[in-house]
Design goal:
Blueprint: H1 3-24, H2 33-54, H3 65-75, H4 91-94, H5 99-120
């Protein structure tokens, strides 16, 4: 698989993670939880897609984080350690996520990135 495509996915994932982190650096009353939650889901999705590309596993660009994670778990058992529970709330709840829950989502994205970088090296 093209290393450029993999690199692009990982860089895009980094951009969404940075966007979420920047939003979280705002005063708590100004943080837009929807923006943080959506950015983190997108970040993790892109990291997982980069891993799947590296392993030449087909995926649909529209697949959910849950589906992508299952595909990664089928390749490498270390992905079973990724707990996406912080990401699994309803759309209505995304608008009202608490700061600590959004922080857990950012931690999850960082952990996912580290696992994937470790597996790609």
């Amino acid at each position: 698989m093209s290393t450029n495509k993999i690199k692009t996915k990982l860089e895009q994932g980094d951009q969404f993670l940075e966007l979420a982190q920047e939003e979280m650096n705002r005063p708590a009353e100004d943080v837009v939880s929807y923006m943080v939650c959506r950015s983190i889901r997108k970040s993790i999705s892109l990291y997982l897609k980069g891993f799947l590309l590296d392993n030449e596993v087909a995926f649909n660009e529209e697949e959910t984080v849950e589906v992508l994670l299952k595909k990664c778990q089928a390749i490498n058992s270390h992905f079973k350690d990724i707990d996406i529970c912080p990401l699994t709330f309803t759309k209505d709840y995304e608008y009202t996520a608490e700061i600590d829950q959004m922080g857990k989502c950012i931690d999850l994205a960082r952990e996912t990135k580290e696992l994937i970088i470790h597996k790609l090296i």
